[in-house]
């Protein structure tokens, strides 16, 4: 009797391993089509199935790090140390001089706005000025780093501000993570009670409503699929793009969740080619796990 129960379980385990190996091979094939370093970590949340490629190597996060910063801010809100409606003054000197910042573009002399709006700019608009203001409210990069490490995450480094990054192309490598660490942080955010239900819903809303990066994780997925994500992008110097990234949570048609991080680093090629790598990685995982 025991043998009859064991055989189906062993067969199912074998099928899972075979499917994982096939998917990992597909990810390698996709990565081989671009000159650059590609890292992927994907998790089918409800089953624990994974797919990985170079998932424990270090990659510059660029604006993907605005997700853990937002998470840390909302933890402070839940503790009562910050309030979403509190006014936040942004001085002219805090506006990043270059790089993406709608706050700077709209308010060149500085502005005061509610913390909720700064948070939205940080996540939905990927605003560099907003990011630095949130880091200030958290007590700096070291305090933010400790907040993330307190969640059990060790391979995410939050070391510099946007202001410092825009002045030196190489500084971005100090803000790094492994793909698997970012996927784990997304899993913890989504499944553990690290935020109140209201704060969790707010962050998911901002990540879902972002207009940034429509051709990345979302690029090849069916219309109507919900994707809560945070992108990251460096500049391109002499044909080299140091970071084209996306990390997020994809809700599958049956209600299950695909958590995925894709980093494309030190890559040559067009923007469409680099974003296409991310889209193909997400689609490969989606196809494998939706059919499964």
Q: How would you describe the overall organization of this protein?
A:
44% of the residues lie in helices and 21% in strands. The protein is built from 10 helices and 10 strands. The longest helix is centred in the first third of the chain and has 30 residues. The two termini are 28 Å apart. The model has no long low-confidence stretch (mean pLDDT 95). Belongs to the class-A beta-lactamase family. This is Beta-lactamase. Keywords: Antibiotic resistance, Hydrolase, Signal. InterPro entries: Beta-lactam/transpept-like, Beta-lactam_cat, Beta-lactam_class-A, Beta-lactam_class-A_AS.
Q: Do you know the CATH topology?
A: Beta-lactamase
Would you identify the CATH architecture? 3-Layer(aba) Sandwich
Quickly count the helices. Answer: 10
Total strands: 10
Helix-strand topology string? HEEEHEHEHHHHEHHEEEEH
Number of domains: 1
Please give the largest β-sheet: 6 strands, antiparallel
What proportion of the residues is helical, as a percent range?
Answer: 40-55%
Protein name: Beta-lactamase
Signal peptide: 1-19
InterPro entries: Beta-lactam/transpept-like (IPR012338), Beta-lactam_cat (IPR045155), Beta-lactam_class-A (IPR000871), Beta-lactam_class-A_AS (IPR023650)
Organism: Chitinophaga agrisoli
Q: In short, what is this structure?
A:
Keywords: Antibiotic resistance, Hydrolase, Signal. The protein is an alpha+beta fold.
